[in-house]
Amino acid sequence: MQCTESGVASPSRSGVCEEYCRLLDEFGNAAKEVLHLHAEQLNAILQDDTEYGRFDLPIQMANERKHEAKYNFIRHVQEHGCSEINALDFT
Fold this sequence. Notes:
Blueprint: H1 18-46, H2 56-80, H3 83-89
Helix pairs in contact: 1-2
């Protein structure tokens, strides 16, 4: 399966699941958000910013969104059965 940057299935591929792409994109974006916030917190620590704890709550909230996106993606794959098609396209 080929998913575009926008999370939409590539029109050149048959048997692609647009919902798979959308959910995978949501999960990827949520994971990037967590990484970004951790990087910001690390940068604050390295700059001796004593207020680095201000990132704790946003990191927790971003992690919750990432977990929700992850399990929405997994649930879709299990219910829809599109993982067999996608596994072949990623090899």
